[in-house]
Write a structure and sequence with these properties.
Layout (H helix, E strand, L loop, with lengths): L4 E6 L6 H13 L6 E4 L5 H11 L8 H25 L3 E5 L2 H11 L4 H12 L6 E6 L2 H17 L13 H17 L4 E5 L4 H22 L1
Parallel strand pairs: 1-3, 1-4, 2-3, 4-5
Helix pairs in contact: 1-8, 2-3, 3-5, 4-5, 4-7
Length: 222
């Protein structure tokens, strides 16, 4: 059986990833694909507990190194429990965030650097790389405004507030944003950069174009 295809969506909170991954999944289902959707942190019972530690704005503070270690604990479990079995069975996997997020947020935002992130990925994740990464990168100001308004709305509705990162200063997010651009420049064959304050339909069209090209190639190879 041919190995499956691994697609990740990346970007700052407020970039529209969640909306776009749902639209992409619906688009694929109409074309007889049956994608496996997952997210990081989370996506497994263990990962959901780690997600609470990492994102809940009321949780106790964690050091940058602890934060990075927890991200990789979540990721290693997701690979073992969800991602690798799906790929081995020939499925398409759509994942909301992967190691690029850790490199951007902990490597860039927390200023830990790319090297320890990439080394941990090699050691703990078997150096598993997405076949395609869709990086949504609207302006920094637009992303932050949307993310903070979303968190305020969730809090007002009495829901879970996963806005611990949104409490950071703008300089933190500037470093994250720049690190994402650095990753895209370093790996242009894997990362498709979708820039600018585009509408939902415009972003979806660019995503569909990129995914269609790759899936056609995979079909020809198999």
């Amino acid at each position: 059986m041919p190995r499956g295809f691994f697609i990740t969506l990346e970007g700052l909170d407020g970039s529209g990833k969640t909306t776009q991954i749902k639209r992409l999944a619906a688009w694929m289902q109409k074309r007889n694909f049956d994608p496996v959707l997952t997210r990081q942190p989370g996506g497994t019972a263990t990962g959901d507990r780690i997600r609470g530690l990492l994102l809940d704005s009321s949780a106790s503070p964690v050091s940058p190194m602890t934060e990075m270690a927890l991200m990789f604990a979540d990721r290693a479990q997701a690979i073992a429990e969800v991602i690798e079995p799906a790929l081995a069975s020939g499925r398409v996997v759509l994942c909301d965030r992967f190691t690029d997020s850790t490199e951007a947020y902990q490597g860039g935002g927390r200023e830990l650097g790319s090297e320890p992130v990439l080394e941990l990925h090699r050691l703990l994740c078997g150096d598993l790389k997405p076949d395609l990464t869709l990086l949504l990168l609207p302006s920094l100001e637009n992303s932050l405004d949307r993310a903070r308004r979303r968190n305020d709305r969730q809090t007002a509705q009495g829901g879970k507030n996963e806005g611990r990162f949104e409490q950071e200063q703008d300089a933190f997010f500037r470093r994250v944003w720049l690190k994402y651009r650095e990753i895209a420049a370093r790996e242009p064959s894997r990362v498709v950069l979708i820039e600018g304050n585009l509408g939902i339909d415009e972003v979806h069209e660019q995503i569909v174009e990129a995914v269609s090209e790759r899936l056609v190639t995979v079909g020809q190879e198999s």
